[in-house]
From TrEMBL:
Function as written in the Swiss-Prot or TrEMBL entry: Catalyzes the synthesis of GMP from XMP.
Protein name: GMP synthase [glutamine-hydrolyzing]
Chain's gene name: guaA
Residue ranges occupied by any GMPS ATP-PPase domain in the UniProt entry: 193-391
Lineage: Bacteria, Bacillati, Actinomycetota, Actinomycetes, Micrococcales
List of catalytic residues: C78, H166, E168
Length: 517
């Protein structure tokens, strides 16, 4: 792999994704990795990421100097560029000047292999205090800015390169070209990482792991469980059984999507558990959000355990212990829970699909090395319906946490109708790519006066919560076109009974969370 050395900012994952977009497999390692640990991974190239520190700080994250002696092509970015300069005999100066945001960089000479062919002046994204004031011996300066004399350097013989700016962010005009040039031209790596290869590799791995054993999978209707299940099915066919629990808190058409389109496109053996009544009974009279989440989580596990024990009994009768369980764990989960970087930054959300810890299963996790966009690409390659592969995030507790107040069958019906209209209009307007997700919330305990025809109405408001986000940790409200908002509002108030008002949530996160509960 190409190893991305993580110096502790959020940039490492982005860099790893850009490398894969260039068709080369990448993994993230913490900056504390020793030269021996790095060598053991047999890297074909290294990229040193940016980081929040100054090389002058007392506990500044450092790099085992042996790593730059391994003879591996290396690209340093921002802080990684400075670490490289320092270790190889250049000078890093603490000038007190800061460069932040869009900056003009000018090529020095032809820009070398790294920047060659790019315009002499380009817009790059900077974020640094210290700067490299002298390149190490044997290095050529490839670019500079007004504030930074050495903004990029290279040593073609050693295949060492560095840039002060962030080529991984879209605000750097020729950013991806820098990464592509480094990987393909400088390091000579072929672009052979693509969905087809990933599928072939995972299928082989899954077969090796489970042999002839039986495998259980829980489908939630979301992208990750849909793709991981389809991959395992591709590998082991009918040794796999998928379970889908309909808790009644799904959106309009979701169950049908799974039961019809998904099954038709994969051939997966699916068991649907209709638990709608059980969930409604358990939720009766409850309006506290945390309470609702707990109840939904508990009922989910109960329903799953019931069907699981039936399936295990069935398998046991045929001499198989049904030992394997599919999980749609993604690479960011692995990295964020310490599996990749040592930075613990785990989301506190527990998925309703999250299964009890005492289950005696061995996990099959075919998406563990993949990012979300790669998972979607694989899903498409496997022929899954676009409605599932392109789906925006949806919380495990479903519509249960989008009804502010008690959850009842009537209220679910109202919310489902309003949500379907909003989704339909957003898709029709071509806005799905711009929004991260758009929760539609029913304020069931609020009423307001309205007028319709000749009559006074006393109905409930629906809240639209369109947000833009990179990772759901922070978000901004999406500036949707007025005519689209107007269309959604008109349709909801006309077509959904008991709703006489539509309001727009214009709060960023923080301070508001994306969901209302
Ligand atoms: P908040 O509301 O915390 O949501 O800003 C952040 C993201 O997480 C989703 N979300 C959940 N997902 N189980 C999930 O699987 C949950 O309990 C849960 N709660 C919120 C939310 O839709 C958003 O994408």
């Amino acid at each position: 792999p190409v190893l991305v050395v993580d110096f502790g900012a959020q940039y490492a994952q982005l860099i790893a994704r850009r490398v894969r977009e260039a068709g080369v497999y990448s993994e993230i390692v913490p900056h504390t990795a020793t030269a021996a640990e790095v060598a053991a991974k047999e890297p074909v190239a290294l990229i040193l990421s940016g980081g929040p520190s100054s090389v002058y700080e007392k506990d500044a994250p450092s790099l085992d100097p042996g790593i730059l002696q391994l003879g591996v092509p290396t690209l340093g970015i921002c802080y990684g560029f400075q670490v490289m300069a320092q270790q190889l005999g250049g000078t890093v100066a603490n000038t007190g000047l800061r460069e932040y945001g869009a900056t003009d960089a000018s090529l020095t000479g032809d820009g070398g292999v790294l920047l060659g062919g790019q315009p002499a002046d380009q817009n790059v994204w900077m974020s640094h205090g210290d700067q490299v004031s002298a390149a190490p011996e044997g290095f050529e300066v490839l670019a500079s800015t007004t504030a930074t004399p050495v903004a990029a350097f290279g040593n073609a013989e050693k295949c060492f390169y560095g840039v002060q700016w962030h080529p991984e962010v879209k605000h750097s005009d020729y950013g991806q070209d820098v990464i592509v040039n480094f990987l393909h031209k400088a390091a000579g790596l072929p672009a052979d990482w693509n969905s087809g290869n990933v599928i072939a590799e995972q299928v082989a791995r899954i077969r090796a792991q489970v042999g002839s054993g039986r495998v259980l999978s829980a489908l939630s209707g979301g992208v990750d469980s849909a793709v991981s299940t389809a991959l395992v099915h591709e590998a082991v066919g009918d040794q796999l059984v998928a379970v889908f629990i309909d808790h009644g808190l799904l959106r309009k058409g979701e169950r049908e999507q799974v039961e019809n389109d998904y099954v038709a496109s994969t051939g997966v053996r699916l068991i649907t558990v209709d638990a709608r009544e059980t969930f409604l009974e358990a939720l009766a009279g409850v309006s506290d959000p945390e309470q609702k989440r707990k109840i939904i989580g508990r009922e989910f596990i109960r329903a799953f355990e019931k069907v699981q024990s039936e399936l295990i009994a069935e398998a046991a009768a045929e001499g198989d212990p049904m030992r394997f369980l599919v999980q749609g764990t993604l690479y960011p989960d692995v990295v964020e829970s310490g599996g990749g970087t040592g930075t613990a930054n785990i989301k506190s959300h527990h998925n309703v699909g999250g299964l009890p810890e005492d289950l005696q299963f061995e996990l099959v996790e075919p998406l563990r090395t993949l990012f979300k966009d790669e998972v979607r690409a694989i899903g498409r390659e496997l022929g899954l319906p676009e409605a599932i592969v392109g789906r925006q995030p949806f919380p495990g507790p479903g519509l249960g946490i989008r009804i502010v107040g008690e959850v009842t069958a009537d209220r679910l019906e109202i919310l489902r109708d309003a949500d379907a209209i909003a989704r339909e209009e957003l898709t029709k307007a071509g806005l799905d790519g711009e929004i991260w997700q758009c929760p539609v919330v029913l304020l069931a305990d609020v009423r307001s006066v309205g007028v319709q025809g000749d009559g006074r109405t006393y109905g409930h408001p629906i809240v639209l919560r369109p947000v833009s986000s990179e990772d759901a940790m922070t978000a901004d409200w999406t500036r949707l076109p007025y005519d689209v908002l107007s269309k959604i509002s008109n349709r909801i108030t006309n077509e959904v009974r008991e709703v006489n008002r539509v309001v727009l949530d214009v709060t960023s996160k923080p301070p508001g969370t994306i969901e209302w509960e």
